[in-house]
Amino acid sequence: MIKINNLHKKFGETSVLAGIDLEISKGEIVVIIGSSGTGKSTLLRCINFLESANKGSICIDDVRVDTKSYIKSEILALRRKTGFVFQNYALFAHLTAKQNIAEGLITVRGWNKEQAYQRAQHILDDIGLGDRADSYPAALSGGQQQRVGIGRAMALEAELLLFDEPTSALDPEWVGEVLSLMKKLATRHQTMLVVTHEMQFAKEVADRVIYMNDGVIVEQGTPDQIFNNPQDPRLQKFLNQVGI
């Protein structure tokens, strides 16, 4: 369903991704772990062209993009296959929760406002924020803002949801509600690629855990294999550092 082949990314002379190969099946939940600065977030941003990779290809269903040779319509087609949940929520401050969720349906999918607002209200009800539809981001807690951010990604019914450390900007009391919503999506077999420092979430929800270091995939396997029987010394050291 999703295939990433030989993906490379440099910032100046610094290599951030050094030949990533990754396949994700429909309905699979893949969690990426690793120390900060190892290329995890950059990988997500390259998948939907928030950053342009220097080399490699990305394929989601019937859309394939060569990162060295592409046209704008191919990027738009790829982005329609993905939804992105940002670390810092990235909500529009001047729009209500309902409007934030509806915005992509109107601008990307071409829905009329009435349709989009109905869909947005349905999603808000689903994520437990039905009574906050007319609230602006400033009136919402961090956890509520992030749930709206996830709702916005859900609205587009994307093939792949990309989560870039969705709880790292949250106060501890709000982390649980965001992780609960992600677990809910997992029960619906939503394909997800998640960069996170929440090891317990990775243990409980992931079908596969990937450990990245220095821009490459060092080791991957089931949560049991990665957390209980790590093979690579770099992964063993990382797990010790995070208390596992």
Which SSEs are present, and which pair or pack?
Layout: E1 2-11, E2 14-24, E3 29-33, H1 40-47, E4 55-60, E5 63-66, H2 72-80, E6 82-85, H3 97-107, H4 113-126, H5 142-155, E7 160-164, H6 172-187, E8 192-195, H7 199-205, E9 208-213, E10 216-221, H8 223-228, H9 233-241
Parallel strand pairs: 3-8, 3-9, 6-7, 7-8
Antiparallel strand pairs: 1-2, 1-4, 4-5, 9-10
Helix pairs in contact: 3-4, 3-5, 4-5, 5-6
Q: How would you summarize this macromolecular structure in one to three sentences?
A:
This protein has 244 residues and is of the alpha/beta class.
Task: Give a description of the structure.
The protein is built from nine helices and ten strands. With 244 residues, it is of the alpha/beta class. Helix content is 39%, strand content 25%. β4 and β5 form a beta hairpin.
- Rg result: 18 Å
Please give the count of helices: 9
| Beta-strand segment tally | 10
Roughly how much helix do the residues carry, as a percent range?
25-40%
- Unreliable residue runs: none
* Share in β-strands: 25-35%
Structural class: alpha/beta
Sheet with the most strands: spatial strand order? 6-7-8-3-9-10
Q: Given the C-alpha coordinates, what overall shape results? A: globular
Largest sheet: 6 strands, mixed
Mean pLDDT: 94
The sequence of SSEs as H and E is EEEHEEHEHHHEHEHEEHH
Q: How far apart lie the N and C ends?
A: 32 Å
